[in-house]
Amino acid sequence: MINLHSHLEGRVRPSTAAELSGRGGWEEALQLDGPADLTVYLRKVASTYPLFGSFDALHRIAKEAVEDAAADGEHYLELRFGPSTHVREGFGLDDVIAAVCDGMAEGSRVSGMPSGAVVAILRSDPTELNEAVARAATRSAAVGFDLAGDELLYPELERYVDAFAIARASGLGLTCHAAEAGPASAALDAADLFGVTRIGHGAHIVDDPDVLARVADRGLVVEVCPSSNWFTGAIASVTDHPAPRFRDAGVPLVLGDDNPRQTGSLLSNERRILADDLGFDAAALAALDEVSIAASFMSDAGRVALRAR
Ligand SMILES: [Zn+2]
To answer: What is the pLDDT of residues 219-245, one digit of tens each?
Structure first.
């Protein structure tokens, strides 16, 4: 099981949140009530931001996120996070990214499960800040780069082009949340403007048969997260998730659990949904595993080791 779309801010343990904040009630506070829209969903995730206030807190949350994924039976985790929301006076972008990368490395060492950090810029952030995040990412141990945030409120992509160019020039793997709340065309725009090889969610790609065919032709990999799409209102129910239509159109697919603490669904359950609710048989799941290894942002040596497992 390979998890290629998961957010650090969506994997905080309630017990850790209680210790870091000095108050309880986090089990309920972190969990979403039910389906709404992307803005409501992201507000829930953002309620964790005050917890990430120090090197030790970031390091601990990142380490535990890796350990929890390993305990879920996962074999590799790509963990993304937006460093700009966690900077403090005297604790800058490089410090935030280092804390997360160090914590993840420690979690991988303890659990035996490899992991890779993906630095995300945020749609709501100023352009200069996003470019500073990109430069910090290139100086770090991160393996990938992403654009996250509210596609409903900030659909325009042009102003992130330079940040992606910085990340691309340094060889970071590239992905982008697109066609999650926005239209199908946003996925192709992200590929054209940023050079991404993967699209986060892409649930609306199937709304346009022409775009769907072009995504398949280009081999753009779609990171599917069924439960998340239900909570954000992108689909009416998990059984309506477009994963079977992607599969039938020949779009390469990988799986993620996005924000499992908020949705209550870890990767193992997302995989169960593919098998039980969306008709993915053993061959389709094996194809997904192979695409996941090939499309991951890990090193070639890491890929060889993962295939062996
Ligand atoms: Zn996401």
So the answer is: 999 999 999 999 998 899 999 999 999
